[in-house]
Write a structure and sequence with these properties.
This protein is an alpha+beta fold and 301 residues long. The chain folds into two domains: 12-125, Nucleoside Triphosphate Pyrophosphohydrolase (Alpha-Beta Complex); 157-297, Nucleoside Triphosphate Pyrophosphohydrolase (Alpha-Beta Complex). A hairpin with a 4-residue loop joins β8 (135-138) and β9 (143-146). Strands 11, 12, 13, 14, 15 and 16 form a six-stranded mixed beta sheet that branches. α5 crosses α6 (288-297). The chain is globular and about 65 Å long. The protein has helices at 27-34, 97-100, 106-124, 198-210, 260-269, 288-297, and strands at 38-43, 47-51, 54-55, 58-59, 72-77, 80-87, 94-96, 135-138, 143-146, 152-153, 158-166, 171-177, 188-191, 214-225, 230-239, 252-259.
Length: 301
């Protein structure tokens, strides 16, 4: 049986940003830090300004003289507070996290990922889940308080599993969703249901999506995925390549077993952004799916 571990940290999991949780409820410290704080502006489409050095950060005082409710406190970098805020209009070279994530340093990757996740949550949480009353930001943007009863709510993260299914040797199962072009494939994933463990979710999702029973479910690693507010929990499992595949839930158009040499060739060719013409294209480097595939392909046959 060929087991493997991740050969590198998933790109969006490598944050070195100091989140400085102890400052979130210290209003005076946040106010004092605002004077020379940096501000990351994010559009509603999740894009930011970048230049040759990476993320473009503005002085927070360009937004206001003191911290405002709309801004979220990301943490501290090199002694300076860092905040983020949604903006309707932004000029310059704009990119989203998928486009620039692989090219950012560890701290900037953490800033951008956290900013998108937090701001997306705020945008969808302006009213209490209990009674529908308005809520307002608190704790530097890390919670919201109901204006009617003071109930406090925290950022929601939806867990999803993603699993590389292999045959215990040199074949891996890759699938294509209905909306994808014929040559784009990835490993299988799905959201965790209420009352369900990660491992149970793996076996259920794979059974639902391709009709395959798997065994030896093993944890690999995880990665935040703020599209809009998920975390991907990576696994590997073993399946029988001779078992029939069925696609009953309508999400998967087709799935096939590929060899390790097939995957290595596809990884060398590029990713989903590559020009058409390849027999097989795999997800880009920002996805934990690619990290898992690279790690599996690195094993000896």
């Amino acid at each position: 049986m060929v087991h493997f571990e991740l050969t590198e940290i998933p790109l969006l999991s490598r944050s070195t940003l100091d989140r400085a949780e102890h400052l979130r409820n210290d209003h005076e410290a946040l106010k004092q830090g605002w004077a020379d704080a940096s501000l990351l502006r994010v559009t509603s489409g999740g894009r930011v300004r970048v230049d040759d050095a990476g993320l473009v950060l503005d002085p927070a005082t360009d937004l206001a003289a003191e911290p405002v409710d709309e801004a979220v406190f990301l943490g501290v970098d090199d002694g300076r507070h860092v905040w983020a805020v949604f903006t309707k209009h932004l000029d310059g070279n704009l990119v989203d996290l998928r486009g620039i994530g692989a090219h950012l340093n560890d701290t900037s990757a953490g800033m951008f990922t956290t900013a998108v996740a937090l701001l997306n949550w705020h945008n969808k949480s302006r009213f209490s889940a209990i009674d529908g009353s308005p809520t307002k930001p608190a704790n530097g943007g890390w919670s919201r308080i109901s204006e009617s009863d003071g109930n406090e709510e925290w950022p929601r993260t939806d867990p999803a599993v993603i699993c590389l299914v292999h045959d215990g040797a040199d074949r891996v199962l890759l699938a294509r969703q209905q909306a994808w072009p014929p040559y784009m494939y990835s490993i299988l994933a799905g959201f965790v249901e209420a009352g369900e463990s990660f491992e149970t979710c793996v076996t259920r999702e794979i059974k639902e999506e391709v009709g395959l029973d798997v065994r030896e479910v093993r944890y690999l690693g995880s990665q935040p995925w703020p599209f809009p507010r998920s975390v991907m929990i990576g696994f590997t499992a073993v399946g029988d390549p001779d078992a029939p595949l069925t696609f009953s839930d309508g999400e998967i158009a087709e799935a096939h077993w590929f060899t390790r040499s097939d995957v290595r060739e596809a990884l060398a060719h590029g990713d989903w952004t590559s020009p058409e013409g390849a027999r097989l294209l795999l997800p880009g480097s920002i996805s934990i799916a690619r990290t898992i595939l690279v790690s599996w392909a690195a094993k000896d046959d």
